[in-house]
Amino acid sequence: MLHRCYGLMPGAKLEQVAGRWMLAADYPLRQFEVNESARRLLQALDGRTPLHEIVEDPSRELVRFLEDKVIAGLLHVSYSVEPLQQWPSVEVILPVHENLEGLKRCLDGLAGLKYPRQRYSVTVVDDGSSFSILDALRGVDFAGLTTSWRHLNKNYGPATARNAGAGIFESAMPNRFGRAAQPSQVLAFLDSDCVPHADWLETLVAALDGPLLDAVGGRVEGLRKDSLLARYEDGCASLNMGGRGGAAGLPGDAIPYLPACNLLVKRAAFDAVKGFQHGLRLGEDVDLCWRLASAGHGLFYYAGGTVYHDYRVQWSPFLNRKRQYASSEAWLRRRHPDHYRRRGNWWGAVLLLCAGWAVQTGQALALTPVPLLPPAAAMLRLWRSRKVLRATTFRKAAAAGLRAELASLLAQARSLTRHSLLLWFPLLVAFPRLLTVAGIVFLMAVCAEWRARRPNCGFFTFLAGFTSECAAYSLGRLQGEARAWWRRMLGGEP
User: What is the CB-side half-sphere exposure of residue 374 using CA atoms within 13 A?
Assistant: First the structure.
């Protein structure tokens, strides 16, 4: 099972203010009022004792309370898993389209898992390949791996293929081969271009054990690191959620979603939300995770249980894939608007407009408001958080407000670069004097992304990959929004 060991961050403290107990810190500046039971729990957290030894049968609400404080920077946490005495039955679902060599490599990896062999089986779903993958692998036993096969009569995409392997959308499976008689307790999703580590299934099944979680994902690393794009993708791919675990799926969670190439879901929860969205070719894992979370199911990312992904490391496939990812975002924004509602930085937009106007017209007077904007925004933030001022000095509160506004500006530059970099070029052709402003925004975005990712690659490798990814992503966003607009014009589903 998953062990969670919480403790107060250095600088965070429990104190009484006007007769009320507060959990507070100066950096980051936070203050939360807690009741008596929460105070006793927080005082018992030492960073070493697992939560279940402090609280018998902790509820999801209690875990959510503690995870929120971790995100707020008031608590630190470490996660570990304890091997199970009784292992549940697992069905590994493996969709494949044309990728015979990758499938062989993946099945070899699955045959070498440490998980008890009699407790897991593999279902390979041939998603409309142009040749019979079953015939190509007939007679290969992969060290006695228990394997069943499905064949779809055309290429439906990974969402439908995974559903077919799980027994959903039976009408899309005209041909079946050796389906297991008894349904498994856990569904494990893996892709044919991935190779699991030997302890992959053992680790994630142990993390999934218990009533608090219904889905868990593990780390995705690059299979190869022999080229610029391979090194960039290993550290910065959207499938790599990093080395820190945390709750996933809800707006504001530490992890936005769990990639379907390394995902375990309890069958009851998967069936309750009717699986992946039928026919969806991109973003299907994001949609599934957000539907699971909104339905009250617990999702968690554990930075173990690693699989190694054979990323696209040629420029054309790399850029095309990033464009495709971005094009799916238009549909996700309309399906899950709560995940895209973020507080904007109003003065960041004003600052850019003033700087752009000053550069374009040569009128330095337009820069006059710029030095006043950060302090003004910080003062507004102080007014909104004026209750916190009762427990700290004005100087600390002002510094915290200014830091928050600058961080928000960096995040805005990062978002602007990723989603619209390609649109900058015609603007710069029309107004070449804006090149300086665009360069500053881009530099801010690079710094923000580097700080957020902390990739294990050189800076120039990161810069080349990030720039090309932003260009492709902005093109995909434009295409996705245009496609959604056209479908709405025709009266269809965007």
Answer: 15
In the predicted structure, residue 36 carries a pLDDT above the cut 50: yes
Helices (H), 237-372: 267-272, 284-294, 315-327, 329-335, 346-361
Tell me: do 66 and 102 sit in the same domain.
no
Helix (H) or strand (E) holding 110: helix 100-111
Residue 458 reports pLDDT greater than 60: yes
Tell whether 412 is covered by a domain. Answer: yes
Q: How far is the C-alpha of 289 from the C-alpha of 87, rounded, in Å?
A: 24
Which one-letter DSSP state was computed for residue 338? G
Mean pLDDT for the stretch of residues 349-371 = 58
Neighbouring-strand partners of residue 215 = 265, 299
Global pTM?
0.86
Please tell me whether residues 49 and 112 are part of one structural domain: no
Tokens 């692998």 label which residue?
137
**Interval 106-152: pLDDT, tens:** 999 999 999 999 999 999 999 989 888 888 887 777 777 888 888 89
CA distances from 429 to 315, 349, 426, 434, 439 (A): 26, 21, 5, 9, 14
pLDDT > 70 fraction of the chain, expressed in percent and rounded: 84
User: What is the spatial distance between Cα 22 and Cα 15, in angstroms, rounded to a whole number?
Assistant: 5
Lookup: tokens for 379: 């003062």
Rg of the chain taking only CA atoms, in angstroms? 25
Q: What is the DSSP string of 4-52?
A: EEEEEPTT-EEEEETTEEEEEEETTEEEEE--HHHHHHHHH-BSSS-HH
The DSSP line for 344-410 is --HHHHHHHHHHHHHHHH--GGGGTTGGGHHHHHHHHHHHHTGGGGGGS-HHHHHHHHHHHHHHHHH
Distance between CA atoms of residues 281 and 278, nearest Å: 9
Burial class (CB in 10 A: 0-12, 13-18, 19+), 305: buried
State whether 128 and 276 are in the same domain: yes
- Residue 173 exposed, middle or buried by CB count within 10 Å (0-12, 13-18, 19+): buried
Q: How many domains does the chain have?
A: 3
Q: Does residue 76 sit in the same domain as residue 94?
A: no
Domain boundary among 55, 81, 107: 81
Across 103-108, average pLDDT: 93
Give the per-residue pLDDT at 181. Answer: 45
**Cα separations in angstroms, 119 against 109, 125, 271, 308, 443:** 16, 20, 21, 23, 52
Helices marked H in 158-277? 158-165, 200-208, 228-236, 267-272
- How many other CB atoms sit within 10 Å of the CB of residue 195? 20
What are the pLDDT digits (tens) for 151-207?
Answer: 898 899 999 999 999 988 664 444 444 444 467 899 999 999 999 999 999 999 999
Domain range for 70 is: 2-81
